[in-house]
DNA sequence: TTGGTTATACGAATATTTTCGTACATTCGT
DNA sequence: ACGAATGTACGAAAATATTCGTATAACCAA
């Protein structure tokens, strides 16, 4: 068993990570406030989750003041990569292209975004 | 609460669904054999999972013979869409484009696949 | 200073998912 | 015909993930 591999975040943890990635540093209160825009949750539930994330090494925290400040440790890119890989593997028979088309087909992208993707594809082709 | 929405498959269930989507019809034994190429698992574990999937309405089965034959009921496309949407939402701040680039960047795609994606993008642009 | 508000810690209840043992029925080869 | 192999059913343990109540400490405003 590989030991130094990143703990895979659960769904709830991912929700929190997103907020931390976005904001940088947050108190539990701030995270909780944002979370409860979308769904019902008790404050201590959020607190507990973040404490567990700390135990797992997903986040670090500054406890020098009464109100602790949390920051994501796990890298957003790396985590996204992990999740995408898993999904490709798990639901798209290993074909990234199929996932890409599925994603593009069902989600509105702006002209700019589409252009960006095309450029990216050109670059990939040249690399090959 | 919405009642007629598809039950979201768990990870283990998804592994099994993939096999069923691929093969069409399968016995528990067949599914189990394929599963255990990748990971350790007891036969009755696989059996139980498939029985649960049946209860949940993810699969149907023909029980006319001793050895039951299972078939996926849930649609592959729809399930993929559901999962992709969730991931975009959950880890990519709602940006499909970002997921797409992540997927393309880290997973080898053939020239043909890249071409297919490009064509697809052209079509999307024209639609806009 | 004192009471209300806002924190953290933490155990424990719930819920969900995964795993497996055991009982029992059917089938098949010899 | 009968024992081994193979199948299903099902309860329940184990592993994970989620939720929350309660104790207690720190802070702040009057």
From TrEMBL, chains A, B:
Keyword Transcription: yes
Gene Ontology MF term list: DNA binding
Swiss-Prot/TrEMBL keywords: DNA-binding, Transcription, Transcription regulation
InterPro entries: BlaI_family, WH-like_DNA-bd_sf, WH_DNA-bd_sf
GO BP field: negative regulation of DNA-templated transcription
Family per similarity comment: Belongs to the BlaI transcriptional regulatory family.
Protein name: Transcriptional regulator
Organism in which the protein naturally occurs: Pedobacter antarcticus 4BY
